[in-house]
Amino acid sequence: MVEISASVLSGIERDKATKVFYNLEVANIDYFHIDVMDGKFVPNITHELMKEYATTIKQISNIPLDVHLMTYYVKDYVEQYIDLEPNIITFHIEAVKSKEEAFEIINFIKQNHSRVGIAISPSTSIEKVYEFLPYIHMVLIMTVEPGYGGQKLIPETIHKIKMMKQYIDNNNIEIDIEADGGINLDTAKLVKEAGANILVSGTAIIKSEDYKKTISGLKT
Ligand code: DX5
Ligand code: ZN
To answer: Helix count (H) and strand count (E) of the chain?
Structure first.
């Protein structure tokens, strides 16, 4: 059974956010996906809003936080979210300058009692993260260009998920594969078949009439 991580990046009116978070919990999501953007790694800036939302969620819900950092200065942003005890913090491999820095961040996140994910953007090859996989808990394969919700899934990214699944199976690596971006009732089938076991979905859920129905549709 796949898990659903609901992105709270777009489509939520700030003054109605608490109600939306409550309804998402009731609709059986497995994670809240917190999309943190710094305006440098991607043009969009969402940190302040995402910190506000993550803090509210922490106050009203026990559903785990799945924090997705689309930022440079990764450690600084990890420090911003660690007090909310996220279940997992994911950083982009494109945001770090060396293997040593990547391992430093991995250890820093673990020392702060969170699980670790590494994300790759559509144009980054999966080989780039192979060496880190035995040391982390999740690999996030972007199925849209990072930066905005509501985009269409990039079909070529499905193959990346398939290749990643093959690699972790052939090498007996226990790790989650998260697909992120443009996931709806149609594209969910494709990424699940390819091997993703955590699906991030924002617009397809938030814009739907019945969250529970949409979420169970994404899961089956
Ligand atoms: C994009 C974010 C995604 C996005 C998902 O940079 O990482 O999590 O918000 O939202 P939808 O499902 O609308 O593509
Ligand atoms: Zn995301």
So the answer is: 8, 8
Q: Is residue 203 part of a domain?
A: yes
Of the candidates 207, 204, 201, 208, which has an alpha carbon nearest to the alpha carbon of residue 3?
Answer: 201
Residue 1 lies in a domain: no
Q: pLDDT tens digits, residue range 8-49?
A: 999 999 999 999 999 999 999 999 999 999 999 999 999 999
Q: How far is the CA of 148 from the centre of ligand 1 (A)?
A: 6
* Any domain includes 68: yes
Q: How many CB atoms lie within 10 A of CB 83?
A: 11
Ligand 1 binding residues, C-beta < 6 A: 7, 9-10, 33, 35, 68, 70, 144, 146-147, 149-151, 180-183, 200-204
Number of domains present in the structure of the chain: 1
Range of the domain at 165: 6-219
CATH number for 101? 3.20.20.70
Tell if the pTM clears 0.90, that is, is over it.
yes
Q: How far is the CA of 145 from the centre of ligand 1 (A)?
A: 9
Ligand 1 atom closest to the CA of 205, numbered from 1 = 12
